[in-house]
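Late entry, written up from scratch paper. The run itself happened at the end of the previous shift, but nothing got recorded in the book at the time, so transcribing now.
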Amino acid sequence: MTIRLGDTAPDFTQDSTIGPIRFHEWAGNSWVVLFSHPADFTPVCTTELGLTAKLKPEFDKRNVKAIALSVDPADAHREWIADIEETQHTVVGFPIIADVDRKVSELYDMIHPNASATATVRTLFVIDPAKKVRLSITYPMSTGRNFDEVLRVIDALQLTDSHTVATPGNWKDGDDVIIPLTVQDPELIKQKYPKGYKAERPYLRLTPQPNK
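Output as recorded:
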């Protein structure tokens, strides 16, 4: 199954480190970062889950829940969490799905046979409170993910959901944003962008970031 942006994230029930999870019910009205890793007790994954654990305060500010997944069983996950917490100096406060039968991995197309016939690749989804997929990123198995980028994209998604703006390349929270081409009426522009704007070109209009 191929999951595209705007699709409803498939629901599932699967075992995890906190017991069986029904995904949509667990997600509730939060944003979700769902990410897979190839295997427990592996070095790159250990650093990634440590980084995710340390980002909990930032995720909480953004109404985001994190949930990880691999095809290892829950008991192995729990043993590995002890290693993560000791080596990465953090507390793993999010569940890890135990996808032993690969039900979720196949549902979300997380196993790429040309990379590994059995292990999940480093796939990451950002899912909004309406259960729509808003971002998908797939990294090679040997390359750790940039979780600062995940936060940056969530900031951009939440801003553009609440205001009629787009974000330029390398945008960070607080930077100028773009007035979309769909907004052309001068009175509407004054109403929506009271801080004014600078037109580099008729199609490239930059305005200060709106207040959240």
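Residues 7-144 form a domain with the Glutaredoxin fold (CATH 3.40.30.10).
(Scratch paper discarded after transcription.)
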